[in-house]
Amino acid sequence: MVKKLDKVDVVTVGVGWAGGIIAAEVAKAGVKIVGLERGEDRSTEDFQMVHDEYRYAIRYELMQDLSQETITFRNHLDERALPMRQFGAFLIGTGVGGAGVHWNGDTWFFAPYDFQIKTMTDKKYGKNKLPKEYTLQDWGITYDELAPYYHKFEKMAGTSGELNPLRPERKEKYPTPPMKNTPILEKYMKAAKNLGLHPFRQPSANISEQYTNPDGQTLNQCQYCGFCEKFGCEYGAKSDPTVTVIPTAQKTGNFELRTNSYVTGITHDGNKATGVRYVDVQTGEEFEQPADVVVLTSYTLNNCRLLLNSNLGRPYDPKTGKGVIGKNYCYQITAVATGFFKDRFNAAMGAGALGTTLDDYNNDNFDHSDLDFIHGGSITMKQLGKRPINENGAPSDTPRWGKKFKQESIKWFNRSIPVTSQGASMPHKHNYLSLDPTYKDSFGNPLLRMTYDFTEQDHALYDYITARCAEILEEMGAEVVEPKELTEHFNIVPAQNDHITGGVIMGEDPETSALNNYLQMWDVDNVFVIGASAFAHNGGYNPTGTVGALAYRAAEGILQYRKNKGQLVKRKQNSKTV
């Protein structure tokens, strides 16, 4: 029997970066908010142990249990989708803090070009630059509108970094100085400059010095231990929701965190949500939590699935192009070339966002007139910290086992390092999310089905950017340079890139988008959907900074919505457009 609870002002589904920011901002304003998190609570104390690569990086301790809940996947509409049983192409975090606990810490602003990509591309290259099968569209917001929220996220997180010479629109310095430099990063910077490029030390949430943010939360200095990605930080030196926004929300007395609370649906009456239904996964009890405002702050895939299973919004149909929920699913194109060097480096030391990058081949910073793609990617050399199980690479002609493999692995462990690019992904009408007609979870709800394959745009961008990565390694003097090839078709394994976007996108037109620029649903105005699911395409940077900025703006929208007694939040008329 479902137990109906007392109504609250706001309820969030998921308590990671997005849910934590919403909780902190609305709780500080005196609003009562409940955060429902399907996983367990956690803090820095949970990671104060010997770093266990097998537990966290191989067996994915901090990720969703695929034996309990997964997705199905296919490349094309005429294929039957099958359940994903192994993580690879992306990682679905779970537990308090979500992916904000196990992220690397790259903290980027998307470029002005990203937010008005359709308008800017058409203006410069004509309307036929990409075939009509690509569902490219503007975001319904400009960089100038979002910039103050970007800076708010950075000040909360204490981001370390230095100014990008190719991003003149940024006026403010980072809250903390850039991270330490290293010999290998110096070598990369020198080579890039020799090629006429513009390298700089990238923005990082593995912060360079102790910092107290505007909410009074203190973050510690990075120890360069090399265990960031897929790991929690025991030092409290990696900005994450459990050491920043969640404690801020809790100290107000207006926020209640409920863990082990698996949301199965959004309850609604007509075009108004009335609350959510969830199961306590420890006791099996089922509850209904009424709320004035429902905020989805879960992972990209889970936001979309919950709307589809709750019959909220109009599902996207790739055959007609109608509908919006599930539309514009995008991946990120990870171009990689690895260099093998004569000199040894202390590659075992590092941090998730310790790196030097350049933007010369990102956004529209180079001419695409004679190229078969748009956009590009940031190109970075990182010193992540080598880990012995996953990162003992050797040249491709090395045997994969035996004495020779061991010798070569030892030789190249501190002599090899990749140059990588986070390449932009453009939406295509046949890449989308829907409900699977066959497979269900343990609660009887359909699994989410992903239909996705690499496009001609993806392959062209990948080939171009990979060649640029290889050029830099050659200029650095690598003895061997091995560019990685993109497979003909996308596969869910092996590991490639965590950054997926779309499915519940924002825009200016309710016919082609699910959300307005405050991430409020057009069709159900007391539901806000926050996360990378709102991105109309994927850019050339890590998405977390943009998720954080949009979350701060959405929090403002939620407060406006309550103040205006349930009216659709209106866009401020002070933005610059092209």
Please report the distance between the alpha carbons of the first and last residues.
55 Å
β-strand number: 22
CATH topology value: FAD/NAD(P)-binding domain
Computed Rg: 23 Å
Count of helical stretches = 12
Mean pLDDT across residues: 95
Report the sheet-strand fraction.
Answer: 15-25%
Query: What's the helical proportion of residues?
Result: 10-25%
CATH superfamily: FAD/NAD(P)-binding domain
Major beta sheet summary: 8 strands, mixed
Shape: globular
Low-confidence regions:
573-578
Can you identify the CATH class? Alpha Beta
Protein name: GMC family oxidoreductase
Organism: Virgibacillus siamensis
Family: Belongs to the GMC oxidoreductase family.
InterPro entries: FAD/NAD-bd_sf, GMC_OxRdtase_N, GMC_OxRtase_C
Which key features would you list for this structure?
12 helices, disordered C terminus, FAD/NAD(P)-binding domain, 578 residues, eight-stranded mixed sheet, alpha/beta, 20% strand, six-stranded antiparallel sheet
